[in-house]
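Reply to thread "Modeling small-molecule complexes from scratch"

Following up on the discussion above, here's a worked example others can learn from. I took a protein sequence and the SMILES for flavin mononucleotide and predicted the complex. Inputs first:
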Amino acid sequence: MSRLELAALAGLIVALLALVAYVISMAREEGAAGAYNSPTGEVVHLPLPRKITEMSVEEAVLHRRSIREFTADPLKLEHLSMILWSAFGITEPRRELRASPSAGATYPLEVYVVVGERGVEVKGGAYLEAGVYKYDPFTHSIKFVKKGDFRRDLASAALGQEWVEEAPVSIVICAVFERTTRVYGRRGEVRYVPMEVGHAGQSIYLMSTALGYGTVAVGAFYDEQVARVISAARDEVPLYIMPVGVPRRPYRGSFEEVGRYLEANRRG
Ligand SMILES: Cc1cc2nc3c(=O)[nH]c(=O)nc-3n(C[C@H](O)[C@H](O)[C@H](O)COP(=O)(O)O)c2cc1C
């Protein structure tokens, strides 16, 4: 074989190897997307938790209502930070205990945030990139899972509930049941994990209310479809979708009205 032929053969082999490497990398990417969890790895550190509202707990309870109509206004990043922290954040660093109680501190909940186009305002009029993010309580940050505005897909997985599409942000609470059932067996599955989602959900309601937002606990959806939209890991089961946004008509309760109602009932 001449030198020229050898060089041509070597070139051909290199080109073939490059093609094989490309095909393998494409297959990997597709496989990862199908198998869920193909994060780009970008991390957004959320503003640190702090005292931020003037509303008392009793006022937040009084004014809490399920809200299903939202304006086009975004959430402020600082507020998203407080809503996530109040439900899932670390409150006792020494023992890594968190804002919501957990059976045996097994912490089965994993949290995704579906951010719409211009859904979260960062300081200076910039916006967080639309996409699906995952919350990390240990660094109080959200990590990019995938880019794009997935609100319509999420709403369609939730039987077309428009408020899921309309809200600038939806928090999707999933559970890894195994973390709790490993310790408590079936009781963990039918009682403890669902109870824990309720605790977290109520904190999201109350913190959202105190910050001037509204939310609604959405439990009606196709589990598999929601898991696909957020690219959940295989062992993460979605339990609640909580769309959060500025209410079109904020609800305001009244202690006087509640008092009158209770006194009338006492009179019989
Ligand atoms: C487990 C659970 C599932 C729910 N699922 C939905 C839902 O899929 N869609 C919805 O619009 N509201 C849903 N809700 C909200 C209830 O409809 C709401 O809490 C109820 O009407 C009482 O109103 P309030 O929350 O304003 O007090 C759900 C609430 C709970 C606790």
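What I'd highlight from this example: The pocket of flavin mononucleotide is lined by residues 65-66, 68, 161, 216-220 (CB under 6 Å). The longest strand covers residues 237-245. Questions welcome below.
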